[in-house]
Amino acid sequence: MERNIILDYFKIILSLLVITIHTQSLFDEDSVYGWLISNGIARIAVPCFFIISGYFINKKLEDKQVLKEYLLHILLVYIIWSLIYLPTYYNTIEPRSLITFALMGYYHLWFLPALIIGIIMLAVVEKIFQNNLFVLLSGIILFVAGYIMENADMPYRSFCNGIFFGYPFLALGWYIRKKDLIKNIPNIYLYPLILISLCTLIIESYCGYKNEFYHNLFISLMVLCPVLFMLILKNSKSISKGNSAGKLSAAIYYVHILVITLIIPVSDSNNIYKLPLIMIVSILLAIFIVGINKRIKIFL
Q1: pLDDT digits (tens, 9 = 90+) for 94-106
Q2: Beta bridge partners of 239
């Protein structure tokens, strides 16, 4: 199987950015620089993962059987990792919350049920309305609704899910592929959009720092993430056979919480000194998981 190796490396970088989110505080608790990294720049990671999934979901949406098998595989992976993390979250949350975590995901695992819900929504909306622009606009509207919910200080699970987070970015990736925007939009437009949206993200993050408010949804991500993805794909020509690099990013994402909870516990501050070792251990464990998954395809 041929893959875009540059995109695979980009996904690995995104997984490492997720680690920086979960190893806060990077510097002193009051450090604005650590905040702008973990609660600003690093927040591009998960939206980009959804966009990538949306971009490559097009062919699966055309075949019900393929789509069904794909969703069942995601569900299987989610169940396996939920069981792996069961001892961890069973000891850290109240018993009454177990059902919520089982349905919506423990910690970072929320991405998987959100991905399933988002893909189902995308398939239904596309089939019913058969309008590319409507799919895109519906995603933007739902994201804005989630943004409002977050700023209204509603519970994290109410907006960080497949409806208000997953579907909007899946729809963006799907729309990019559907309209072939990577070929149709020249680089000259992408570079200024990245610069402007990145500056906007930093401003949004800084406002969160001043108000001591942890944002997951930033308006700027709706521009920065798809444009960054298009630029990466547009300038990626290196192709490699095999899928180890592509699987590695997923393995890093799934395993890193085990590292920071059981192997190298994070501190209240100055985790920047632990971050390189956490990343190295996560990568090594991820390589091991990729190796196992070649024989038992239930982990990735």
Answers
A1: 666 667 777 788 8
A2: 4
Provide the CA 242 distance to its chain's centre, in angstroms: 23
Type of residue found at 44 = I
In terms of DSSP H, where are the helices of the chain?
Answer: 5-22, 32-38, 45-55, 58-61, 64-90, 98-104, 111-129, 132-151, 156-159, 167-178, 181-184, 187-211, 221-234, 244-258, 275-293
* 4 Cβ neighbours under 8 A, 6+ residues apart: 233, 236, 238, 239
Which residue has 């963006």 as its token pair?
172
pLDDT tens-place string over residues 64-98: 999 999 999 999 999 999 999 988 776 666 666 66
What are the tens digits of pLDDT across the range 99-137? 777 778 888 999 999 999 999 999 999 999 999 999 999
Residue at token pair 């995601």: 74
3-class secondary-structure state, position 91: coil
3-state secondary structure 122-177: HHHHHHHHCCHHHHHHHHHHHHHHHHHHHHCCCCHHHHCCHHHHHHHHHHHHHHHH
From 168, 158, 179, 156, select the one nearest 48 (Cα to Cα): 168
Please state the pTM of the whole predicted model: 0.96
Contact 115, 163 (CB under 8 A): no
Domain-wise residue ranges, the chain: 2-293
CA–CA distance, 300 with 289 (Å, rounded to integer): 8
